[in-house]
Amino acid sequence: MDGLRLQFWFHGELNDFLPPPQRNVAFEHPVGPTDTLKHIIESLGVPHTEVGAVAANGKLHDLSEPAADFAEIEVFPHQTPVCLSDPRFVADGHLGRLAAYLRMLGLDTWYERLADDPRLASVSSGERRVLLTRDVGLLKRREVLYGYCVRSAKPHDQLREVSSRFALSPHFAPFTRCMDCNGLLCPVPKEEIAEFLPPHTRETKNEFSRCRNCGKIFWRGSHHARMLEWIRNLENETILSPGRA
Ligand SMILES: [Zn+2]
């Protein structure tokens, strides 16, 4: 028996995941009798975490419903920016620099360089963190409820992209979190840590903070002003151009 063929149409940024002939047009695709909307949309290349809404035969439907119940399916991306009241992330092992930048901005970001896909998915779902990855297959895992496929390959551009997509600039709290371990920093009196400081730092610096988690000591180095300037530019850019980078 010839399989059932449905009409699909993907909108906006979801086209990033499709081969050129299927972008921004209605096209037909076969579906099996038991395929859910999630299964068929993901088999076409679009992870469920990128889907904001599905209209099937003109009405909104859930991704868990059987696709074969419908004839025409339109798939929409999330409206951006996606505003989060308490933005928290998990970054996959290939996004170490992005994770460090997010932490530098004070954003709670779980990162372990060697974490495998099951671990990343489990941390994301267990701790309700947005999973950031460039691995589309990882975002297709059922347990991943909140995720985003980072399009840019360069860490600075990735930060700009994520900041813009999730409207993060109101949540920036630069230099309040450890870039190494994600722990919170707290001020520490110089006399308490003086013995651990390099001689030049001991002579020239007076304000220090320490990671509550790993104990690493931080102070304002020569790069501090440059980083603040960079953060200010990022805030201006993302305020001026919300939406996708
Ligand atoms: Zn730390």
Secondary structure topology:
Blueprint: E1 4-10, E2 26-31, H1 37-43, E3 51-56, E4 59-61, E5 72-77, E6 88-91, H2 96-104, E7 108-111, H3 117-126, E8 130-133, H4 136-139, E9 147-149, H5 155-165, E10 185-188, H6 190-193, H7 199-204, E11 208-211, E12 217-219, H8 224-240
Parallel strand pairs: 1-5, 6-7, 6-8, 8-9
Antiparallel strand pairs: 1-2, 3-4, 3-5, 10-11, 11-12
Helix pairs in contact: 2-5
The structure holds zinc ion.
Describe this structure in words.
With 245 residues, the protein is an alpha/beta fold. Among the domains are: 4-77, Ubiquitin-like (UB roll), CATH 3.10.20; 81-173, 3-Layer(aba) Sandwich (Rossmann fold), CATH 3.40.50. Helix content is 28%, strand content 22%. Helix 2 (96-104) crosses helix 5 (155-165). The chain starts with a strand and ends in a 5-residue tail after the last helix. Residues 178, 180-181, 183, 211, 213-214, 216 line the site of zinc ion (ZN).
